[in-house]
Structure formats: C-alpha cells, structure tokens
C-alpha cells in the first residue's frame, strides 16, 4: 500500500522548530528543504561553487518539511496533530499531502489499529473493531476521527500509564490539548469525578465530546475550545498535558493557578533531547516525582514544591 507524503511549508526562520514537531509524528521518513544558505552549504559540504540554476531559483524565505508515513501509522492523525501543534506554536504553515487519494488514506490506516491494552487497567478498542474479551480491563471505545490521540503513540501511552498510577476516585482532571479526548475518557473510566478537555482545534473538541458520550461518561465531561488555559477556571487534582515541549514550558508558567498543593501535573510529548529544557522550566515551582521513557519520548509527573 502507498505511503503518504506530507509537505509542510513554513518561514525559513521557523524550520528548526517545525522540524522538531514533525519529528514527533514518526522517528523516520523526514527531510527538510532549506535553501537559505545554499551557496555556503554547497561549498562546505561538496566544495563546489557551481550550483544548478533550478536550485538558485528556489524560494530562500521558505523551508519545506517532508514527512513520509506508512498507512499503519495513521496519516490522518498525523495531519491533525501537525496542524494543531503548528497553530499552537504560532508557526505559519501550509500543508499538502500526496501519493494517495485523501478519501483512501483517511480510512485505510484503520485496518492496522487493533484493540490494544494500556497500563494495567485499560483496553482501547477502535469502534470499527468487533467487541473483544477485555478480561478485567475496562474498555475505552474510541473513534479518533481526525483528532490526535489513539493510544498507539508512545506519548499517549506514557501519559495514560502515569494517569493510571496517580488517579484516585473523586478527582477532578484537566486535559490540556485533549485531542480525541482519550486521556479525559481514560481518567473517567479509571474513577475520576470529572474531566475537562480543552483544545485549540474545534474539531478535536467535538470529537472528544463524542468519545465521552460513546463511553457513557458525557455527564462528567466538559469540552472547551481555546488556547491552553484561557477558557479554564477552578482547580484540578490532575492536569494532563500531552503536547510539545515548548508549549509545556509556556503552560508551566502559570499552571499552578489551577492546582491544589498536592495536585499531580503530568506531561508527555517531550522528545528526549528537550527533556532538560522542560525540567529547567519546572525547577522553580515543581519537583519531578516520576519519569518514564519509551523510544526517545519522555513523560514526567511533577508536584508543587
């Protein structure tokens, strides 16, 4: 089956940040076109000063990030994730897909998304799969649509594992960047009293509310469209942030306003090379109480000092 190419065009000054975010989608199949220092790089790398005219005519103000995704990696989710993260980071972008008709790759990846156990207590079941024997696990029924969050990616799984470890009955949970709502629904299935999901993407908010209804927890779930905590009030026993490192650092600046003294702040979506940056942002107000890592992705749990 064909792979999907996603081509993201951004201002050249944002290429590095945009490339880091694109690398979150898959750990392979990415290359960046950046012609801003063409002559210098041609000399330093190839020791030539005669450059093809077609290259010289390339737009020096833009960079193009190419991501290649196999169908089992869910290209639709990758596109949704990238749109959400670039918008949150305020990176101007245009995005194109190629190699496969959109109506095909929106659905073909689903055959690879099977029921998967997460942690000790949950089994995620995509709605198009037949009901399965979950044993003692609670089944989280999921229709991800075009919103980020299926549980197949390390960032989401690590966050769910930490959530399972710290959740207690009657807790109130805030899910910042809720995507499909998978973390909010998981919290409610694990016993939370309430969960609030907020996302900058209105489609994600709609999808999260639908998944809450699908799992019969809609009466305890509230969804809001907004950037980070701009729509939030009150305090929460657990705050979840499965987003990129830079956004976590921004969120950390005033997240204590929404925490009790003993609340748990769970962060995921952190590339291991950015972990120290996040820890430094936490260090003034928080102490890290647990760290988990898988395939270059880091999740942290922290509490106020």
Write the layout of secondary structure elements.
Layout lengths: L3 E8 L3 H9 L6 E5 L3 H9 L6 H4 L5 E8 L5 H14 L5 E5 L3 H7 L7 E3 L3 E5 L11 E5 L11 H13 L5 E5 L5 H8 L4 E6 L2 H13 L6 E5 L10 E7 L2 H8 L6 E13 L3 H8 L3 E9 L2 E8 L1
Parallel strand pairs: 6-7, 8-9, 8-11, 9-10, 11-12
Antiparallel strand pairs: 1-3, 1-4, 2-3, 5-6, 12-14, 13-14
Mind explaining what this structure looks like?
The protein has 305 residues and is α/β, with parallel strands linked by helices. 30% of the residues lie in helices and 30% in strands. The chain contains 10 helices and 14 strands. Strands 10-9-8-11-12-14-13 form a 7-stranded mixed beta sheet, with helices on both faces. A 4-stranded antiparallel beta sheet has the order 2-3-1-4, with helices on one face. Strands 5-6-7 form a 3-stranded mixed beta sheet. The N and C termini lie far apart (52 Å). Mean pLDDT is 83; it is low at 38-51.
């Amino acid at each position: 089956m064909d792979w999907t190419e996603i081509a993201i065009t951004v201002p050249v000054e944002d290429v590095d940040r945009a490339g880091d975010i694109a690398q979150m989608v898959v750990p392979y199949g990415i290359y960046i076109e950046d012609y801003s220092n063409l002559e210098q790089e041609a000399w330093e790398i190839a020791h030539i000063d005669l450059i093809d005219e077609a290259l010289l005519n390339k737009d020096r103000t833009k960079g193009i990030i190419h991501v290649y995704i196999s169908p089992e990696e869910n290209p639709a989710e990758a596109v949704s994730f990238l749109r959400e993260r670039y918008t949150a980071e305020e990176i101007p972008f245009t995005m194109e897909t190629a190699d496969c008709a959109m109506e095909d790759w929106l659905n073909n990846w689903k055959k690879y998304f099977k029921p998967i156990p997460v942690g000790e207590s949950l089994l995620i079941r995509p709605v198009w799969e037949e009901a399965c024997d979950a044993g003692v696990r609670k089944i989280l029924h999921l229709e991800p649509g075009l919103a980020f969050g299926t549980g197949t990616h390390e960032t989401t799984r690590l966050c769910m594992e930490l959530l399972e470890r710290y959740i207690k009955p009657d807790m109130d949970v805030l899910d910042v960047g809720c995507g499909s709502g998978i973390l909010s629904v998981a919290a409610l299935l694990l016993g939370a009293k309430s969960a609030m999901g907020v996302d900058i993407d209105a489609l994600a908010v709609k999808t999260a509310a639908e998944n809450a209804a699908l799992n019969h927890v809609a009466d305890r779930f509230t969804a809001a469209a907004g950037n980070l905590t701009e729509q939030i009030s009150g305090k929460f026993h657990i705050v979840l942030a499965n987003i990129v490192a830079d956004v976590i650092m921004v969120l950390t600046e005033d997240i204590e306003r929404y925490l009790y003294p003993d609340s748990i702040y769970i962060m995921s979506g952190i590339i291991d090379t950015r972990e120290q940056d996040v820890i430094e942002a936490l260090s003034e107000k928080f102490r890290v109480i647990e760290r988990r890592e898988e395939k270059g992705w880091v999740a942290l749990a922290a509490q106020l000092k």
